Amino acid sequence: MLEWLKTILGDHYTEDIDKQISAEIGKGFVARADFNSKNDELKTANDTIKGLQEAAKKFDGQDVEGLKNQLSTLQTKYDTDIAAVRKASAIDIALANSKAKNGKAARALLDLDAVKLDGDKLLGFDDQLEALKKSDPWLFDATDTNPGQDGTGVHVDTGAEHGQGGSAEPSDGVTAAFAALNPDLKL
Known about the structure:
mainly alpha; 7 helices; rod-shaped; 187 residues
């Protein structure tokens, strides 16, 4: 009931007028609690917009597409570099496991572009390694099946005959080894 309306209309006030005015007020006006709630929501939304606008100002003048392209380029470079390091490490480990005396020298004699890394497996490496072991056996430690007399696995050969006496010619291990490799050469 609208008590303030009775005061204004006095004797002209009727229940019908009260119902009509109440119905019209409900169409064009909202309750104070609803208004305050919506007003608070609006203030919060405006504060959020203001914060986002300030954050966006930090990126003014930035070429977003350029940054995306740069990020893509750097990611590709990173992936390529990591793949190269993994491949190089796998090759180094394989050379060490094959008892290469000098991994750097062995790498130089391999066609590393033909070697591919598939997970943990080197494709195209084993064939090259076996060929390298046959062509350049000096690059690899041979498995010694006849360890030295002291059991250390070290066998020293001077190239001279051992046993009763020696030859009258002066001979050392280097000269003997050279003569053995070059039998047609007169020393």
